[in-house]
Amino acid sequence: MPERMLGEELALHKISRRKLLKFATAMAASLALHPSMAAAIAENLAKARRQSVIWISGQECTGCLETITRSASPTLESLIFDFISLDYQSVLMAAAGEAADRTLREAAAANKGNYLLAIDGSLSIKDGGVYSMTGGRSDLQILREFAGNAKAILAIGTCAAYGGIPKAAPNPTGAAGIEDVIGDKPIVNIPGCPPIPEVLTGVLVNFLSFGRLPDLDEQKRPLAYFGTTIHDQCYRRPFYDQGKFAKSFDDEGARQGWCLFELGCKGPITQNACASLKWNGGTSFPIQSGHGCLGCAEPDFWDKGSFYTSLAGGQGPGWKDIAIASGAGLAAGTAAAIAARRSRSAIDQSIEHERKTKSGTET
Amino acid sequence: MTLLDFARGPALYWSVLILIGGLVWRLSGVLFLPFQRNLATPRGGGIEPVYGAISTIFSRMLPHREFWHRTAVGGMLGYAFHIGLLVIVVGGAAHVAVIKSATGLSWTPLPKGIIALVSGMTFTVLIIVLIRRLMHPVLRLLSNFDDYASLVLTIFPVLTGILLAGETFGSFGLLLAIHILSVTALMIWLPFGKLAHTVFVFFGRGALGANFARKGAAK
User: Has residue B199 been placed in a domain?
Assistant: First the structure.
């Protein structure tokens, strides 16, 4: 049977062109494209064929996959996922062990040069990657084998993008992000712990519609979603501008929904779409729930001090270090003063000696 | 490590230690210096040296009426930016948060609008002070590297603070990093240049006041 195009598949699922167009309009807005592009997206989506996606995992907690499977219940977005041929995903697929491994190889061979390689989790590169292995092979070996014939790589989640929590000090496994290992393939980083599922949808729609990856920033993140900070899109931003800050999580300011900057919110330095796309079908996001942003979409967010220290503060010295510095200062000052006293004493003795000598000569 | 990580981490850490260690060094070095023993009999009838010290610390903050017609401009400018700096440091919401995280002490910050106004005024006055130092024939002759470095290092945090509050260019993180770095530069220089007057002024005036009291000259 010839492979159907997405438009035919949608018709079979009683998804009208009107619905497809509405979805395309939403996607165009989400990708920060001109509204006129919606028709082109719908047109190209209808003509597109199923895109083979191979999803492998590194050192991960399955949170990224959890969030993406819960992206939405049976919406058009999830149907789009249906039309992606997810040829390998070890958690979701029924096969296991050698059968799963065979499926992976067959899928990669059948779509050689055309599949998208998605990966969640960081790579262990220390000691040859022995700290994370599947079927006797390290994640590093598996990635290198399948990255070679991939059209592009999607690094899903902060761990895959930058190393994430496995990379947190002291990083015992030598965890690293994908682009630290693969340098010769187009990579899209979709950071977040977990990432926003609609961002992955947007990247796939962009790829299916226009045949290319979306525009990326210097950290290889889709500009449409990571172009601004959470702070700039936050509904609490007016309170920041007015200087109204919650001082604790249970004070009047917190109840009034004031800015959480002083409680350690990292929104001003975190680029992500949480404040605009939100989570659970646009229901809420952490700041709306009353907690500051942790900055989970930024590199090394786990090692940047307390989540509850204001950005205005920092990692200054503790009282013990201050006492040591004061002691060192006191010792240096006292030594300088003693040296000055000795010098002064020597001068006084010299003057006294000179005076006595002069006095003796005169008598 | 990003620039902001560096600013909030090692730069802040070491600059605070250098500030405190440097100030203690300078102060203890002066306090333990040999003093010339005053063999003269103290003049009676005046106030105790300790009161003389305290009163002189405050009385010297007030302008002398006799010289006011000549020092009015310099005095007013000095008052303006010193008061401005104090208001910004103790009244800005972000600064109060820093003080709270460092010491546990906290108070209600001033509204952002007032801080913005005072910051603008302070910056303008500091620029005028710098220009005056460059243009005034006598001041120019008296000025050395220390004077200009101290002034520029004071202006820079005010400028970067204004740019940060207004989020004028670049990212918030970049502006915040530049602001923190400008403050760390100020803290590193403070104990070793003329900015040390922030601490020394009290000791200098105190010693002078105590001496005046002994001679019966303190009010």
Answer: yes
